Amino acid sequence: MPRRLYVASLTVALAACSTASPPPKAVVAASPPKDDGKPSKGAGVAGAEHAAALEQLKSAPLAVRVDKQGSVRIPLPDAEHWTRVRFLTVKSLVGFRYGKDHHAIVAGMVTHVPDNTVQGACNKSFEQWAEPWIRAFEVDVTHDAPAAFPWRAPEPAAAGGKPVTQTVAIVDVDPVHAKMATVLARESYVAAYTTYPVWDNACLVVGVAIPENDEAERAVAARDRFVKDVFPKVEVTSDKEPPERY
Fold first, then answer.
1. CA–CA separation, 115 vs 40, rounded Å?
2. Do 54 and 221 touch, CB atoms closer than 8 A?
């Protein structure tokens, strides 16, 4: 139950229909059509466009995108084709969609704990925040092998320009397959999330969700690139928690 909570909240922003996936055919990597930045009615594009977009996510060079308050740097593949968005029902620190048809989304939010150095505290705080979403959406989750990596947390600037030793935290990643089945929607996607101990008693949660749309193998490969190449390189550049949420 607890591990599926972040995935459930991501489904609020991402809708993607899927059926059993045939073996993938050769597809040339390509960016999605130019995003006009206007609100989308939801994901659902399958076929060659989705397959090509996933291939692009698997292989495109990474470049950094920054939140509006300049506090978090997230490296994204094919970065210029991600559009900053707000999610209608979830307040976030930052959100991006890959193509207007949501070939993928990335979201970052903040939770609070009494002591973010306690092992598991950040995960627990997010689970408590997300509990209402799991009640609203019936999400069936299966877990792939978990991952972990060392990450340097931000430290307040030292007086007189003296160097500051950053705290190294071991950050856990949970990659999953998820299916949502409600009266209004039946979707299948892959996702992963991780939590970083940051600022004063705060936790940064960063997650990616990718609709399968008949491309399960490509979706998994694209998600796994985030686990391996993106999450470990997330940087928090502000030593104070940014005040705004969107």
1. 38
2. yes
